[in-house]
Amino acid sequence: MATKNKKSVKAAAQKKIRKPKLAVWKFSSCDGCQLSLLDCEDELLTVAEYIEIANFPEASRRVIKGPYDISLVEGSITTPHDAERIHQVRRQSKFLVTIGACATAGGIQALRNFKDVKKFISAVYANPKFIETLNKSTPIADHVFVDFELRGCPVNKYQLLEVINAYLNGRKPNTPSYSVCVECKRRGITCGLVAHGPTCLGPVTQAGCDALCPSYHRGCFGCFGPKETPNTSALCAYWQTLGVKDEELLRLFRGFNAYAEAFRKESEAHEN
Amino acid sequence: MKTKTLKVDYLARVEGEGGLLVKISGKKVTDVKFNIFEPPRFFEAFLRGRMYSEAPDITARICGICPVAYQMSSVHAMEQIFGLKVDGQLRALRRLLYCGEWIESHALHVFMLHAPDFLGYADAIQMAKDHGKVVQMALKLKKTGNDIVNLIGGREIHPINIRVGGFYKLPTKKELETLVDRLKWAVDASIQTVKFTAKLPFPEFERHYEFVALRHENEYPFNEGRLVSNKGLDIDVQEYENHFMEEHVSHSTALHSILKERGAYFTGPLARYNLNFDKLTPAAQDAAKSAGIGKGTNNPFKSIIVRAVEILYACEEALRIIKEYTVPDKNAVTIDLKPGTGCGCTEAPRGILYHRYRLDEKGIILDAKIVPPTSQNQKTIEQDLREYIPPRINLPQEKLTWQCEQAIRNYDPCISCSTHFLKLKMTYE
Question: Considering the entire predicted model, what is its pTM?
Answer without folding.
Answer: 0.92
